[in-house]
Design a protein that fits this description.
The protein is of the alpha+beta class. The chain is built from 8 helices and 7 strands, in the order βαααααβββαβαβαβ. The radius of gyration is 21 Å and the shape is elongated. Pfam families: Acetyltransf_1 (PF00583).
Length: 226
């Protein structure tokens, strides 16, 4: 197993980190698409569409064609949802990583390095939820290259965030992850995080029956949140 080390982000990591983040998000598009197709509403809608077109046109081939067009449109919507999220991140906090995480209070950004290359990343910052500010920090932008998963890198990166928050006197770490990121959910739950809620990120997300799960990890020695 190849060795790795966790270190603080440097400016020369900029392009690699942004690419790693984008690839990590976009690789979940197929899982998101499968989730949409497994929805009872989606399956019922496709069945009704097929039956309606077949009855109106008299040809089952046209019914299949209509279903194929809708499936293509659904893929486009799921893909656009992912790319929109990536564009937003790259144009906000990941546009100037040093300013966002290294020069900002109670924030940091780490990378995992193996064989001289950056293969993982994670950040921590005050949470967007105003109710959590001053109480918890937020784990953000976790991603590990596909070729280096299963080697404990994600666990080590998560550990850096927990230690950082504990050292600064915070009582908890919070994070959000999508419902299709099952491996990430298992990782966080294995590190002591518990799911505390779920929300839809947008109107498009609601239409696609897509949810974001919210997790919280109460740090040892602090009072757990209700």
């Amino acid at each position: 197993m190849a060795s790795y080390r966790i270190r603080q982000y440097r400016d020369q990591d900029y392009d690699t980190v942004r690419t790693l983040f984008a690839r990590g998000i976009l690789e979940h598009t197929p899982a998101g698409y499968r989730h949409v197709l497994r929805s009872a509403w989606a399956q019922l809608g496709l069945l009704v569409l097929f039956a309606a077109v077949r009855a109106a046109a008299g040809y089952w081939v046209l019914g299949l064609g209509a279903v194929a067009l809708v499936l293509s449109a659904a893929w486009f919507l799921v893909r656009s949802f992912s790319t929109s999220y990536v564009r937003q991140a790259l144009s906000t906090d990941l546009r100037d990583i040093s300013a966002s995480y290294l020069r900002a209070p109670d924030s940091c950004f780490w990378v995992a390095e193996a064989g001289g290359a950056v293969v993982g990343m994670v950040a921590v910052a005050p949470p967007q939820d105003a109710a959590e500010r001053g109480v918890a920090l937020e784990l953000k932008r976790m991603s590990v290259s596909k070729d280096y998963r299963g080697r404990g890198i994600s666990k080590a990166l998560c550990g850096e965030v927990l230690r950082f928050a504990r050292a600064r006197g915070y009582g908890a770490v919070v994070l959000s992850t999508s419902m299709v990121q099952l491996a990430a959910q298992r990782l966080y739950e294995g590190q002591g995080f518990r799911k505390v809620g779920a929300s839809s990120p947008s109107l498009l997300g609601s239409l696609l029956c897509f949810q974001i799960f919210h997790y919280r990890c109460d740090l040892p020695g602090r009072t757990a949140a209700p």
